[in-house]
Amino acid sequence: MSPSQEQFVYEQLNDIPTLRGVITAAVNIFDHDVEQLMQRVFRKTDFAVKSVVDSLLGSSGPLADLSVRLKVLLGLGVLETEAYQDIEYYLDLKVRLNNESKEYAFSSPLTLAFLNQLHSVQDKAILQKLEKELHGTQENKDSLLLQVKAMRHEKILRSYLLLSVNTICERLDIESPL
Q: Record's superkingdom (predicted)?
């Protein structure tokens, strides 16, 4: 992944204030990157092949849905199982968040559980430490120390999400093996 693509991911996600917004933007980024990978794998210059492939991949074609595209890429061996599963986790979380009216904080148990299941998150020890800190908090909710800790936790978990998206995008930025 080139530095400009990496910067694009950070620029897209960094200023989004809500977990729902970050997850939605991440799925949009994955959709774009999967589309680019599909282009590299399936777009051919031969007119007959191009016309068939274009109709399959078009916005109303059977391969227009991100989940279907992921399954095709996984089935062809173009996409690693871990990257496939991680994107599916993002898709599932997006659906869940869109079906709920509640806004979750980045430091919510939902975010921690989500990050713990991702393959793209390598260092889970920090997540486990944060989870213990968040569950072990018996301090006054109005204390300045607790507010500072909460802001720190939010930033760390947001960073984990951004790094996860970046890692998945790197796995999608491959040349066609076909």
A: Bacteria
Q: Give me 130's structure tokens.
A: 């944060």
Q: How far is CA 101 from CA 97, 98, 114, 154, in A?
A: 8, 7, 19, 20
Return the structure tokens found at 21: 């917004």
Task: Give the total residue count for the chain.
Answer: 178
pTM of the entire predicted model: 0.84
The confidence band for 123, taking pLDDT boundaries of 50, 70 and 90, is: confident
Percent of the chain past pLDDT 70, that is, above it, reads 79
Domains of the chain (ranges, CATH numbers): 3-173 (1.20.120.330)
How far apart CA 3 and CA 153 sit, in angstroms, is 27
The Cα 31–Cα 35 span in angstroms is 6
C-alpha torsion sign, points 173, 59, 84, 158: positive
**Cα angle for residues 81, 83, 88 (degrees, 5° grid):** 95
Q: Alpha-carbon distance 143 to 32, whole Å? A: 43
Please say whether the dihedral angle defined by the alpha carbons of residues 45, 51, 52 and 58, taken in this order, is positive or negative.
positive
